[in-house]
Each structure stands twice: as structure tokens, then as C-alpha cells.
């Protein structure tokens, strides 16, 4: 990948994930905000918040920029502020900001692991997969809670007739 391709991939994917997280939040009953898929995992609000964190980590970290989410709450209003702030930070990026990104290395933590990766590996093997993982967990929490969401709610692309089932 070249610098432009990395810019295109990370900014588009991050914005899409934020859009999908916002959509899932809109479908979630209040009782689901604190629901966990299993004990010791983030609850729905934590999963959605982490989508915004990885949206910023995937776009700003590879170019050496600091990122911060000043909004730390887990309520709907705080989560909406996080979406708005992350979207604004990502929208402010230009392809020129990614000049030389393919030559950069990213040193970071993954849990307790200390990693040092080239920027492309960091983006493709760590940051973007983690962003989509947390969105998937939020989706799974809603499904487990019986919320009527489907693949179209997750990716915004699919469409199935009402009542369709693969099984």
C-alpha cells in the first residue's frame, strides 16, 4: 500500500464504523447500555466507546498524532459527543497528513503486549480489526438481548426481506 491508500482505507473505514456504532446505539434500548456479552467484557456502551477509540487510533496514531476522547461517559449523550468529536478529528485529516506513513513505525500496547509494527501492519492487522471487533461485540450484545438488528444494521449495506432466514 502507498500513503494515499492507507489514508483512504483508514479514514473511510473509521468513519463507516462510527456511523454503524451510532446506528446501533440508536437501536439499543436503555437497558442494553450496561449489558455485557459475558462477564469481564465491556458492556454495550464500553464496546461502542471503544469503536471511537480505535477509529482515532487507526487514523491518528500511524501519522504520529496524539488523540484524546475528552468525553468519558457511557450515557447516550456522552457517546454521541464521542461520535461527533471522533468524526470531526478524522474529517479534518487530509491525504497530505499521511505523507511518509508507509515509512513510519508504530510502537504501542495491545493489552500487556508491547508491539512495534510498521504503520501498514499496525493499521491492517491491529487497529482496524480491533475497531470492527468492538463493533461486532456491540452488535452481538444487542442480538443476545433480543433486539431486532441484522446484518444491514451492522454494515449498512445488506438488505433482506422481512422474515428472511438462512436456516
Write the layout of secondary structure elements.
Layout: H1 3-27, H2 44-59, H3 76-91, E1 105-110, E2 113-118, H4 119-144, H5 151-155
Antiparallel strand pairs: 1-2
Helix pairs in contact: 1-2, 1-3, 1-4, 2-3, 2-4
Key phrases:
167 residues; two-stranded antiparallel sheet; mainly alpha
| Main sheet makeup | 2 strands, antiparallel
Low-confidence stretches: none
Instruction: Provide the β-strand percentage band.
Output: 5-15%
Alpha-carbon Rg, integer: 16 Å
Instruction: Characterize the overall form.
Output: globular
Structural description of this entry:
The chain is mostly helical and 167 residues long. Helices cover 53% and strands 7% of the residues. It has 5 helices and 2 strands. It has helices spanning 3-27, 44-59, 76-91, 119-144, 151-155, and strands spanning 105-110, 113-118. Strands 1-2 form a two-stranded antiparallel sheet. The protein is globular.
Summarize the structure.
With 167 residues, the chain is mainly α. The chain has helices at 3-27, 44-59, 76-91, 119-144, 151-155, and strands at residues 105-110, 113-118. It starts with a helix and ends in a 12-residue tail after the last helix.
Amino acid at each position: 500500500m502507498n500513503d494515499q491508500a492507507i489514508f483512504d482505507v483508514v479514514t473511510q473505514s473509521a468513519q463507516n464504523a462510527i456511523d454503524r456504532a451510532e446506528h446501533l446505539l440508536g437501536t439499543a434500548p436503555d437497558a442494553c447500555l450496561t449489558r455485557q456479552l459475558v462477564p469481564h467484557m465491556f458492556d454495550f456502551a464500553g464496546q461502542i466507546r471503544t469503536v471511537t477509540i480505535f477509529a482515532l487510533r487507526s487514523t491518528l496514531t500511524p501519522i504520529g498524532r496524539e488523540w484524546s476522547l475528552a468525553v468519558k461517559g457511557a450515557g447516550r449523550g456522552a457517546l454521541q459527543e464521542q461520535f461527533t468529536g471522533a468524526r470531526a478529528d478524522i474529517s479534518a485529516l487530509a491525504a497530505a497528513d499521511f505523507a511518509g506513513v508507509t515509512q513510519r513505525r508504530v510502537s504501542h500496547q495491545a493489552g500487556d503486549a508491547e508491539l512495534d509494527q510498521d504503520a501498514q501492519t499496525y493499521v491492517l492487522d491491529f487497529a482496524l480489526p480491533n475497531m470492527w471487533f468492538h463493533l461486532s461485540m456491540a452488535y452481538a450484545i444487542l442480538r443476545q438481548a433480543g433486539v431486532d438488528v441484522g446484518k444491514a444494521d451492522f454494515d449498512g449495506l445488506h438488505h433482506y426481506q422481512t422474515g428472511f432466514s438462512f436456516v
